[in-house]
Amino acid sequence: MNPKIPLFGDYSYQLTDRATHKEIRKQYNAEVFSSSIIFASHSVYTPEEIAKQSPLFDRIKDIYRLYLLVYHKDEVIGWHSGQQDSIIPNKFYMANSGIRPQFQGQGIYKSLLQEILKIVHNEGFEEIYSIHSVQNNAILVPKLKAGFIISGFDISDRFGLTVKLSYWFHPLRREVVDFRLGERLQSEELKSQLNIWKEKS
Known about the structure:
The protein is of the alpha+beta class.
């Protein structure tokens, strides 16, 4: 078993495996997401349809995955899971995070997010994205404060209207995104790069 890594105070997190993470999610998922209306899309499929889809998931079994558990002393109070994007290998998808209601609003997710960013960047990833309900301010606010930006909207049968958040580690790539969004150019490096692109086009 991996050692616990301090977050702050009596809070810590631990790298774990998929099976342990799944068991914790099963135990606390309803508690954490009690106010969410989530359509279990997988429940509508027949055994034949599930069998037909299985090879699609088999193809991405070897991608990088990250599973974390969050603790208050020795009590599990939350989790995070994410994985490598199956199409763009240097992108990481933050799939699911949850903090039990009685521990929310104490800055735990904010601290955990910084640890996730460090882990994912050390693994070599250059971009992170996540998808959330547009009303999930408990996650949206700390991510926006941490440097994520709104990069898209979508509609999902499972979650309804969703917002995509993205984060780039390389400062020049982030500046390019700001430029694409209509912000003014800041650095001479980006100005010179844009001139190179113009000359090549």
